[in-house]
Amino acid sequence: MESSEYGISKHVMILVTPAYQSRIAGIARYARQHSWQLTILDRLARQPRGWKGDGALVTMRSNPAIVDFVKSLKRHGIPVVDLSLNHPEIKVPRVSGDHFAMGRLARAHFAERNYRNLAWFSTNWLNVHRLRYDGFVAGGEGEVMRWVFEEEVEPSHLDDYTLFEQWLAAKIRSAPRPLGLLAYDDADAARALGACLSAGFSIPEDVAIMGIGGDRLVCENQSVPITSVEHDQGRTGYEGAELLDSLMNGAKPPSAPILIPPRGITVRESTDFIAAKSPIVRKALEYIRTNLDQSFGLTQVADAIGKPRSTLNRIFTAELGRTIGEETLRQRLERAKKLITMHAYSMAEIAYKTGFCTPAHFTNTFKAATGRTPKEWQSARTA
To answer: What are the start-end ranges of the H helices in 221-297?
Structure first.
């Protein structure tokens, strides 16, 4: 449907849930650039009747009305792009986050913190859950415990918070600790956090909890802020709209889903811990953590905890697989990333707060580690 009277080029249905702000913003940015008129629905009880448009952006989850709507669009030759991977049996073009890569990234995060006991938790189980779980399992050696609430309770009890807290607490009590727990998304991570705190577990000392999504509203407004894999929803929305536009203009659909990689991990207090068995290593880690604004090396750490340099270096490297210097740099960069995302300090202030001798040294070291300068990294995270 074309309409030039008001400069409208296409009429597009947006049926995307959950309505993540960044994903909708990505779609809206493309729509503004190309003069689309949008019909936006946040829920669907049955197929829309009488809608006549040029294309649709959807997320096919567990709602059968949305699935039926997509099938109807296909029958009528109206282009549709799915922004999820939950119904691979329905052949439509797709743009989605790389959920397998998200799981692998989470596994690497726990490995970096020396967590050997790992578990997966989700309330539900769909294809996207499976992809994230498979990536988590494939990201390293060793068993991952799989806990899915809906598989062990009656459907009518999925919203029973007391039952859920008892269920998860029993799972954790029976598991070896310290435990690294990956939740399907940030909402599930917050749910797990509440259950763990109610049961008396310390976060992250007993259970380190991590979500997926990068939802700052959820992750930052908890009694223990939650670490999260950053799902690049904005890029997913924009590139989904871009693909739909090409299809509405007669292009052939891609042969496989377009997968958008995660943007990295925002580390918060829920996993800000190294699971070290040796008390010597724990003391060294504490010294590093509390002195990141100072210049120090192996000699200073060894003197502070009263151990010979050679002994400390040997024990530390044997347990964590990296030297005191490597761990110090890792923590300096991680602290710097937190400060960068706060937008409260200049890059020079961040350099001094994280123990770099000059802003230039900070910039060069940061770029060598991440491939971007601190300002480039900040811009990419807030795009």
So the answer is: 233-248, 279-290
172, 116, 332, 270: CA torsion to nearest 10: -10
Structural domain spans, the chain: 10-97+233-260, 99-231+266-271, 279-382
| Architecture of the domain whose range is 10-97+233-260 | 3-Layer(aba) Sandwich (3.40)
Residue-level pLDDT at 29: 95
Name the CATH superfamily, with its identifier, for domain 279-382: Homeodomain-like (1.10.10.60)
Q: Directed axis angle between helix 279-290 and helix 324-342, to 10°?
A: 40
**Dihedral of CA 298/304/309/312: which sign?**
negative
- How far is the C-alpha of 120 from the C-alpha of 98, rounded, in Å? 18
The bridge status of strand 80-82 relative to strand 117-122 is unpaired
Q: Give the pLDDT confidence of 131-168 residue by residue, as tens digits.
A: 999 999 999 988 999 999 999 999 899 889 999 999 99
Q: Is 99-231+266-271 a domain of CATH 1.10.10.10?
A: no
CA–CA separation, 267 vs 336, rounded Å? 11
CB-CB contact of 260 with 97 (8 Å)? yes
Q: What is the pLDDT of residues 305-345, one digit of tens each?
A: 999 999 999 999 999 999 999 999 999 999 999 899 888 89
Tell whether pTM > 0.70. Answer: yes
Rounded distance, CA 107 to CA 109, Å?
5
Question: 45: Cβ–Cβ under 8 A, 6 or more apart, which residues?
Answer: 65
Q: Are 5 and 216 in contact (CB under 8 A)?
A: no
Token digits of residue 309: 């340099």
Distance CA 365, CA 370 (A): 9
SS3 370: helix
Of 299, 305, 300, which Cα lies nearest the Cα of 282?
305
Cβ neighbours for 75, distance < 8 A, ≥ 6 positions apart: none
Domains 10-97+233-260 and 99-231+266-271 share a fold: yes
**Residue ranges, the chain, pLDDT below 50:** 1-5
